Amino acid sequence: MTTEPPEMNDPVFVTQQELDRLIKKLNTGELATLSSVKLGEEAGTDLARKRFYAFRQLMRPDMRWSWWTREVSDHLDHFYHDMLDGKRPRLALMAPPQHGKTLLITDFIAWLAGLEPNWKTIYASYSDELGGAANKALQRMIAEKPYRDVFETRIGEQGWRCDQSLIEYVGHRGSFYNVTIDGQVTGKGLNLGVVDDPVKGRKEANSKTYRDTVWDWFVDDFYSRLDDKAGVLIIMTRWHVDDLLGRLLERHKGIKVLSYPAIAQRDETHYKWDKDGNATPFIWKAGEPLFQEWKTLEFLNEQRSVRTLASWQALYLQRPIVSGGGVIPLNKFKQITLECVSRLRFFRL
């Protein structure tokens, strides 16, 4: 019999009101360490310790930036403070392919390694390759001079493990451990649990046996490793309504969900920030791409035209549909006139 995680509060999809409250907290300094300071020189290093978005800008000065990368960074700021306050936050992030989700999360883990070097992180994914890439990215960032200018956390010294599956932070109890779904985590506690793409693709997602395997490992092994104040991050494509996140939303509560479609499905209010730290609301209009600087509308429409409805909905809109539907590519659908409809004949079988 499968065990179940402890009860939480009601599941929450982030609303406009919650986003407004978060922006207000950031602007008024209600979150104590989240001050608005101009990024540059010494102030930039100081701000990078306090704000995740500033850390990313300092570590990756050539990275393409947009309102949504800033918005997600601010949500992760809030996630960290909820961990400090013992709120045991659970956050799910859904966004289209090649929009930098995994890079975002590995940067966040590096930031936490600097702030809280005694925290243990377990990073789980469907393959050794994905976990190994996150491990290498973390090693590379911590070893670079910009990171060392911000934080004192070190790795790779004699007597401290630093290999393809485990990174120990020198002089501290904290570590980063990457493992595959259904991998060994017994005996390893964690302060931050990260599940990044637990399913490889549609074939695995459509297998109930595989979905059960993922779920059983998550609740029996992974979830039992959590510290009493631990946070959990889930980053995944919603291939199936009965996937890991689907089951969590159905059975358990208190999960905050950030869901970003590749193309806006309706008008939404978001915020842009100026160099002085002031937020200005704007409308992300229906039909506009999420990250124009990275994936243009032309590119996204091309992707949509060659995919089945099920594939487009899952990968680019974060809206899984019931298995068996959406198998015809969208470009095979044609518009018909009312005159054509009037000539249709229906028969009872």
Q: Characteristics of this structure?
A:
8-stranded mixed sheet; 13 helices; about 350 residues; Rossmann fold; globular
Word description of this protein:
The radius of gyration is 22 Å and the shape is globular. The chain is α/β, with parallel strands linked by helices. The strands form two sheets. Strands 1-8-2-7-6-3-5-4 form an eight-stranded mixed beta sheet, sandwiched between helices. The chain has a two-stranded antiparallel ribbon with strand order 9-10. 39% of the residues lie in helices and 16% in strands. A hairpin with a 5-residue loop joins strand 9 (268-273) and strand 10 (279-284). It has one domain: 3-Layer(aba) Sandwich (Rossmann fold), CATH 3.40.50.
Short description:
The chain is α/β, with parallel strands linked by helices.
Layout of helices and strands:
Layout: E1 12-13, H1 16-28, H2 41-50, H3 52-59, H4 67-84, E2 90-94, H5 101-115, E3 120-125, H6 128-143, H7 145-150, E4 166-168, E5 175-180, E6 190-196, H8 202-205, H9 208-222, E7 226-235, H10 244-251, E8 255-259, E9 268-273, E10 279-284, H11 297-306, H12 309-317, H13 338-342
Parallel strand pairs: 1-8, 2-7, 2-8, 3-5, 3-6, 6-7
Antiparallel strand pairs: 4-5, 9-10
Helix pairs in contact: 2-3, 5-6
